[in-house]
Amino acid sequence: MFSTYNNKLSAVLLCGVILSGCSSPAHKVTQQSASVVLRLDHNLDTSLCQWKGEVTGSEGHWYNFLFLLNSTMARGAMNDIKNNAAELGANTVFLLSPVDFQTSVTLLGSAYDCQK
Questions:
Q1: Which pairing describes strands 37-39 and 92-95: parallel, antiparallel, or unpaired?
Q2: Signal peptide span per the entry (predicted)?
Q3: What is the pLDDT at residue 104?
Q4: Rounded CA gap, 77 and 12, in Å?
Q5: Under a CB-based contact definition with an 8 Å cutoff, are residues 26 and 59 in contact?
Q6: What is the CATH number for 6?
Q7: What is the H or E stretch that residue 105 is in?
Q8: Residue 25, Cα to own-chain centre: how many angstroms?
Q9: Which of 37, 102, 104, 106 is the most exposed, having the fewest neighbouring CB atoms within 10 Å of its CB?
Q10: What DSSP string describes 23-76?
Q11: Contact criterion met (CB below 8 Å) for 58 and 97
Q12: CA-CA distance, 99 to 105, in Å (whole number)?
């Protein structure tokens, strides 16, 4: 009887762990990318910035999009683009129009290192 209870408890805990993974984005912000700023406005004065390159960020796949909220996929894509910008040495990303797919969110942007 005790063994059956442990098996059921283990199954419930395993399901909880699996489902909690479905509700959070796969891409997490790193310590290095936490200070990267995402900009959508056209008031960014790039004369005070050095262009570092084009960056993308994406979250969601055909096999897991049913388990993720749109906001979770958007947050994951933002985290991913911040991480990619930080790898280039950028502190600001000017976001271009997002690319909407039914199974994922993808962001495109230009990465800059701007004076603050």
A1: parallel
A2: 1-28
A3: 78
A4: 30
A5: yes
A6: 3.30.110.70
A7: strand 105-114
A8: 6
A9: 102
A10: TS-S----TTTTTPEEE-SS---GGGEEEEEEEEEEE--TTTGGGS-HHHHHHH
A11: no
A12: 7
Which pTM was predicted? Answer: 0.74
User: What does the pLDDT look like over 6-30, one tens digit per residue?
Assistant: 566 565 555 444 544 455 777 778 8
The closest of 83, 76, 65, 66 to 98, measured between CA atoms, is 76
More confident residue, 4 or 26: 26
Q: How many CB atoms within 10 Å of residue 9? A: 10
Amino acid at 56: T
Residue 49 in contact with residue 113, Cβ under 8 Å? yes
Query: What integer pLDDT is reported at residue 71 of this predicted model?
Result: 75
| Domain with 73 in it | 2-114
- Number of domains forming the structure of the chain: 1
Q: Is 90 left (phi over 0), alpha (psi -120 to 50) or beta?
A: beta
Q: How many residues does the chain have?
A: 116
Residue bearing tokens 């969601």: 60
Q: Which residue has tokens 């200070």?
A: 35
